[in-house]
Amino acid sequence: WTSVDGLNSLESEKFVSFDKNSYQAMVNDQSRTPLFEKAITNRLKSAEPDSQVVLDLGTGPFALFAVMAAEAGAKHVYAIEASADAAASARDVIRKKKLEDKVTILEGFSTDVTLPEKADFAVAEIVGSVATEESAVATILDASRRLVKDPADPRSWIPSRVQTLGAPASYTLHNLFRPPAFDWDKLDGQPVRFNCRDEGLQLLSDPAVVEDVSFADIARAGAGGTRQITFTVDPGRVEENVEKFGNEFAKNGQQRLASEVGRLKVETANSVSGIAMWPRLILDDDIEINSRRYPDGGQQKSHWQTVLPILSPEPVPVKGGDRIVVNFDFDIPKEVTRPASYKISGQVVST
After folding, report:
1. Other Cβ atoms within 10 Å of 278 Cβ, number
2. Sheet with 121-123, edge to edge strand ranges
3. For residue 172, which of 77, 120, 230, 245 sits 20 to 30 Å off, Cα-Cα?
């Protein structure tokens, strides 16, 4: 699948975009917004007052982080936004807050923008539910070459590092709706996207790092390529998941017989549907954001989603101790308007 499959997009389906409700959910995310504010404020307080030029990549319709930086003492903020509607809204926000002398809204892709001066640091909340799906690599690579004074310093970036974590997962509906009644192949690789609190998806093992992108080292490291990870099914998790799935099937099927719930919860807990993935952001040395609980991957509230590509038409049976060998093949382009593509395959090695 590609990074724009099933999502809003700009530039003829090449670039992920958002509606106002999505932007509002980001603003309201208490596991995200206050931590970005703290990181921005700390960074500005560590320098001389009124000395820091800030770059906000993807400022959105509320110019949220640009306003935070301006009010926390930035010398000037250049806030770039690709969406014409969002950029117009951001200008209105800056005008109403009377920050025109502190914040400049620039419309377009950052790769097409030239600043009158380089930034001391950049704020770049362009992180998808798969960390690289919002063109972060291409955007940061260009900004490191042209827009930031000292791109090799991790303090030049908020966040300084982004990761995608992943683990094999069991999924209630994949077990409940089976071929021929439901053909999961019709998804054509497009992943199912979950609220990070959804109990209908449970992990079978401890998470592993699938993507790891350091913005300060992006020119050398980049992202993408192939990687093989072996996960071991945790029997303790399987046992816990039986109970959780029992609650889910009972809650969502009031007319379902107890015997059917008993069968479904055991079958689902002892099966793998795909590889669940979600983002982790390291803002600086002391502040990080986890869309799922870290390090175990448990459910918690977040505006980010958990992404689950379904890897087979029917769930594959597993048991505690089995190994799941997964191959990740990610093509992460260096052009901001070319969508990333993701391919995952795997096999179960039974013990």
Report:
1. 26
2. 103-107, 76-81, 53-57, 121-123, 157-158
3. 230
- Tens-digit pLDDT string for the chain (351 aa): 999 887 765 544 466 778 888 999 999 999 999 999 999 999 999 999 999 999 999 999 999 999 999 999 999 999 999 999 999 999 999 999 999 999 999 999 999 999 999 999 999 999 999 999 999 999 999 999 999 999 999 999 999 999 999 999 999 999 999 999 999 999 988 999 999 999 999 999 999 999 999 999 997 755 689 999 999 999 999 999 999 999 999 887 656 778 899 999 999 999 999 999 999 999 999 999 999 999 999 999 999 999 999 999 999 999 999 999 999 999 999 999 899 999 999 999 998
Crossing angle for the helix pair 64-71 and 84-96, to the nearest 10 degrees: 30
Q: What is the pTM of this model?
A: 0.95
| List of E strands, 152-224 | 157-158, 161-171, 192-195, 201-203, 208-214
| DSSP conformational letter for 170 | E
Q: Which two tokens stand for residue 167?
A: 């683990």
Which residue in 133, 144, 163 sits closest to 288, CA to CA?
163
Rounded CA-CA distance 234/47 in Å is 47
CB atoms within 10 A of CB 292: 24
- Which contiguous run of DSSP H or E holds residue 44? helix 33-45
The span from the CA of 139 to the CA of 15, in Å, is 12
